[in-house]
What does this fold into?
Amino acid sequence: MVETRDLLVEIGTEELPPTALRRLSQSFAEGLKAQLAQHHLGYGVVESFATPRRLALLVRNLEIAQPDQELVRRGPSLRAAFDTSGQPTPAALGFARSCGVEMADVAQEESDKGAWLVVHQRQAGRATRDQLVPMLERSLASLPIPKRMRWGDRDEEFVRPVHWVVVLFGDEQVEGQVLGVLIGRETYGHRFHRPGAMRLWVPGDYADLLRETGRVEPDFNLRRDLIRQQVQSLAAEAGGDVVMHDELLEEVTALCEWPSAILGGFDPKYLEVPAEVLIETMQKNQKYFPLRSADGSLLPMFITIANIESLDPGEVRKGNERVIRPRFADAAFFWSQDLKQPLESYGERLKTLIFQDKLGTVAEKSQRVAQISRYIAGILGYDEDLAARAAHLAKCDLMTSMIFEFGGLQGVMGRYYAEHSGEHPAVCAAMEEQYLPRHAGDRLPTTDCGRILSLAEKLDTLVGIFAIGQRPTGVKDPYALRRAAIGILRLLIETPLDLDLRELLDFTAQEYRTKLDATAAAGEVFDYVLERLKGYCQDHDLAADQVDAVLAIGVRVPSDIYRRILAVHDFSQLPEAVALTAANKRIRNILKKSDEQPGDQVDQTLLVDPEEISLAARIRELAPQVRSLIGVGDYAGTFHFLAGVRPEVDAFFDQVMVMTEDPRVRANRLALLAGLEGLFLGIADISRLQPMGQ
It folds into this structure.
């Protein structure tokens, strides 16, 4: 049995960036795993630990040495290894010498490429202990750190200055340095509760020692769960429901080592300010968890997480209440100032705000979006003036004091200011909904006006940015065009809106005519959005070949495209699918290879074989029903209907020679096959489907 030991690695640092802590911890673990695999070292599991002041890994049951390896070294070919008298050449002797063996120990092996000299050697595996420091250095060097720091007069670089390093392999302390710091076996607990050094004897004691003596919860996930439990319990005691977003919970978890939840409050007068503003202030600036009542209204309370178990929690509470007060006072001031004039009055200032140097101001963008909104509203039968009004006001809140301070609330504040200005409820709702969906999985606009404005806004941005040649490349997407493209697809598919995407893009391009020629950009954006459709479908468990089968026929309405893809997916599950797909592939190949153009009509008098007569009759029977089903968008029903043609198709290809010598009969059979293919092409090109499992 292979001997194993546990390995503990801890890198003690100054406070690590909270938003990057989890990523750093995960990358550290993956990097060390990669190093162990590269060195052929087996192990059990790797446990990760991460706090603001440390990254640590516990590798269970790590082999104490690499396994022995059988090495095969190949030398010169036999032709070059021996002279005409059979004596070893200098090349052969040099090969033996380089391997540290005599010529008598050199073997000969044959391969497809000839015969060669070879030497088989057994290499003893190196001790794990001797390789740990280099492996750790390489793992740490590969961490995703955008900007590394140097400290003191050292040359080493890391995300934050390193103060201590622990590397224990079993009960032995590994010798050496990591990031310029001498390896030891002393770790450190909470900065205030247990500031002194704590000696570690074996790796398995690490977590318990920190928890019980050091007052540190080293496990990130356990610490996060503890915070959630504390906050929810305290909120329930206060009679409220906590507003807890995962992003904030993650950040707070990364900011503390020994969390302690504390309930605080603020003056109820600040509840006159929109709740979103107060929540933004509490979450973004102070990392507080707000509380709501059962009816959803904001309560004048919050919960903060202290990184200490205070002897006087009341003082901690007062300190946090004191800090939040001036921030709320500022928010109340911005709110009162902004309300002194109607939302529309801020629109004039948009002429000074540049959207993009080559595309003009935000005011100009608003004018384009208004025209696009009118166009879409007209197609959908919606009030064009209302849609244009929403577009006219959409960006006005960008010039308010509140948005200068809280940029993330654009749209939200627009809705409040529009309501205060007495705008139509649909216009008010559209102010906020124009930005939806903000991210993957986010909600869609629920109002017609909001959907139109959101769609028009995204169309304008995509066409404009593509027209100036700044389409996304690699990881760079400064205008969030990928998100905009996905947003368009979701709006059109999930709402749904049966709109021709290419027509929308062509109209949008025309709105740029006073600035630049965006005609070509419309086509580029159309292709770009449809490329995003493949990823969208993949997220919904739809195969790429199913998407290609529909896109191949040139459909331009995304909602219709998606319904067709769903139908193709259902078709692929039918027992007849494999045979009919193969038949369509065969038809496509026959038509492609033929120099003759098949006719539009099948001449019944030229049908000779019973099988082609039967197939022709079946196609005549199916054609009007297929057209009827496709006309009402019943694509799945159409495929189920077409599946019934399989017996005739199988019989035709088994018994009928398509490329017969008689040119009239041959052309007639090609027309018959083209007619059959046409029934399927009414929905998709199923010849593009791959066999199951490929």
